[in-house]
Amino acid sequence: MTRPISAATALVLLALAGSAHSTDYNWVGPTTTNEYWNVGANWDPSGFPNSFGDTATISHGANRTIFLGQDIAINSLVMNSVGYAITLGQTGETLSFGGTDPFLGWYRSSSRVRAHTIACNLNLDSSLTIGGNTGGSLTTERAQTITGTIAGTGKLTVTLSAQDAQQENEYFHISGTAANTYGGGTSLQGNSSGVRDIFRANKNSAFGSGDVALNAHADLELTDRGATDDMIDDAAALLQGQSGSNYGRVMLRANVNETVALLSQGGAWKAAGTYGSTLSSAANKDDTWFVSQSAPPFGPTAATDYTGILTVLFSGPAVLTTTPPGTIPAGDSITVTNIAGAGCDQGKVAAKGLTQGIQGTFSLPGIAAGDLIPPENGQIGATVTFDDTGLLNGAAATGGATLSFAGNGAANVMVLNGSSTDRSVAYTLSGTAAGNTGSGTAEIVPGGSYAGLYGVDAPGGGTAPAFDMRVDFLGGTNTSGAEETLSLAYLATHPGAATALGDVAEITGVDSTLFVVQMGYDPALLSGSESDLRLGWWNNGDWLNAVEGNHGANDMLFVGDGPWNNDLVLGHHGVDTLNNVAWAVLDYDGQFAPFNSGTMFVPEPGAATLAAVALCLLPWLVFRRRR
Predict the structure, then answer these.
(1) pLDDT for position 503
(2) Contact at 8 Å (CB) between 239 and 270?
(3) Domain membership of residue 88 as a residue range
(4) Distances in Å between the alpha carbon of 258 and those of 209, 225, 232, 250, 420?
(5) Taking the model in full, what pTM does it have?
(6) SS3 618
(7) What one-character-per-residue DSSP string does 545-595 give?
(8) Whole-number Å distance between alpha carbons of 277 and 285
């Protein structure tokens, strides 16, 4: 059965198929006023460019409009006129750029008003570079204008060469009515010849949804769009470059109030607030980064005053309240501040991730993914805590905490530096636990709980071979009537280490007091069924089930496979094979480790052992002799 395909699918397939056989085309069309791209006779060689491997050059000796006639795919296009303007395409037509390093260039040899206009829509299948070289003196406005809609995922880079350099002339102009939707960001690159290049935006969403960057030789002019000024996306960053005494400048026409999420000037992030020239009413006035007045670039005889305002929603990047940043002592916290300025309503935790160190001591309490965080003194804050509470022993704790904030859809709610829609900030935290790598103690007052106390063997330390497993006290209360000193020690050497499935730990100070202890094991060392795994007690040269050593009324019930369920019956025990831990309810001091109860420890036979075996066999040997 043959299935029909859509026209859009056919265009993509045609472009991809044609890219394997790239062709360089030159325009040889007629001298009529209106001409068509998709007429094969208008090109040399015959046919017309329509794949992401094709390049096209259009040269003209008169003002011309060239319609596409259909949607077209292209890799590179150069419009080369000798003092004349070319208008390409019309409303409803789309020119898609793709393939390797797509390029759109224009070349002119004398001044012309409105030279070269892209009137069709542009689709950036790949990132597109637009460049120009006038080759002559340009004294009037607009070297190139795009009036169609720009869509796609690619980045738009506009580069003006040294020959384009004319003080206060407009060289690249984004105009039209429909919003641009491309998402790869925009880079505006002026030349370094010592004079300024101007890039002008004259419609809302002129730069799509991405960040906008100016190099040190570019001026960006934003025009008044009436009640709504939204030429740069509110979630985007504006990045103004600097090279020596040259600055990427912004020209804000009267009544402009443009909003961005973040502002960077010369690589330094600026605080939330309003910015503009010294002629503006902005809180931060600066004629270095913002043009205040210039000679008329576009025809008026009077000088132009730039009195508009740029509103920056976020201070960036977020900062730590600790000294030095990123390092905090045990028990301390850090607070992420400056996530949003006073204009922000609230922030939303889009994602929360904690990459914990071996102690797992970092936490972000009270905040879950999707929660709204209200502003504090005009700023959104979140606290990440390094907490060593309950840590009996362990090495220095290291780990990372990543907080991602995103807008919640309300007005003036943006996100942190990163992509234009999900800006994130990450911190690496470190601290030192109160205990040590050998043994640690905790004073348990009468009625005090053992729950929450734990230990972590130092990496490479503990019983050889070292497993670096946790020991957790899950429950129990000091009922002795006096203060107890609970001690936990990882034993560096132990005769039962060969058959233990984890580190051997000695627990003292709790004899005759009920408590619940849990220890981790390495499943790769299992010699039998994991269901036979138990928490073991070292007794007279052998591993026994730990509950066999209890003093009190002892119900030695194996409750099954699963996490501890708050069971405090003395003798109850279990294994959690999902989390690789074994637990037991005990009431005595001892040396403990996970072990496989189906593989008991058998010591190597010594002289005493052999003698005992001989005595056992003697009656049998006598009996055999009498027969």
Answers:
(1) 87
(2) no
(3) 54-312
(4) 14, 10, 7, 11, 16
(5) 0.57
(6) helix
(7) EGGGG--SS----EEEES---S---TT-EEEETTTTEEEEEE-S-EEEEEE
(8) 5
Two tokens, residue 190: 């002026």
Contacts of 9 (CB under 8 A, 6+ apart): none
Q: H or E element: which one contains 610?
A: helix 607-626
Q: Do strands 257-260 and 262-265 pair parallel, antiparallel, or not at all (unpaired)?
A: unpaired
582 and 539 in one domain? yes
What residue ranges in 432-469 does DSSP mark as E strands?
439-444, 454-456
pLDDT tens for 198-223 read 788 888 889 998 889 999 988 999 98
Residues 212 and 347 in one domain: no
My answer on whether 99 and 236 are in the same domain is yes
Q: Which residues contact 120 (CB under 8 A, 6 or more apart)?
A: 68, 88, 89, 90, 91, 92, 93, 94, 95, 148
Reduce the DSSP state of residue 597 to 3 states and report it: coil
298 and 334 share one domain:
no
Q: Are 39 and 69 in contact (CB under 8 A)?
A: yes
> Can you tell me which residue has the tokens 């400056």?
338
| 155-189 b/e (C-beta count within 10 Å ≥ 16 → b) | bbbbbbbebbbbebbbbbbbbbeebbebbbbbbbb
DSSP string, 506-549: EEES-TTS-EEEEEE--GGG-SS-GGGEEEEEE-SSSEEEGGGG
- Preceding peptide of 465 cis, ω within 30°: yes
Beta-sheet strand order (sheet of 372-373): 372-373, 347-355, 397-406, 424-431
**Structure-token pair, residue 424:** 């994130």
319 occurs within a structural domain? no
Tokens of 447: 């009625």
Q: Enumerate residue ranges in the chain where pLDDT < 50.
A: 1-20, 109-114, 134-142, 163-170, 297-301, 318-334, 336-362, 375-380, 386, 395-438, 459-465, 599-627
Q: For residues 412 and 234, what is the distance between their CA atoms, to the nearest angstrom? A: 8
Q: Rounded CA gap, 579 and 110, in Å?
A: 76
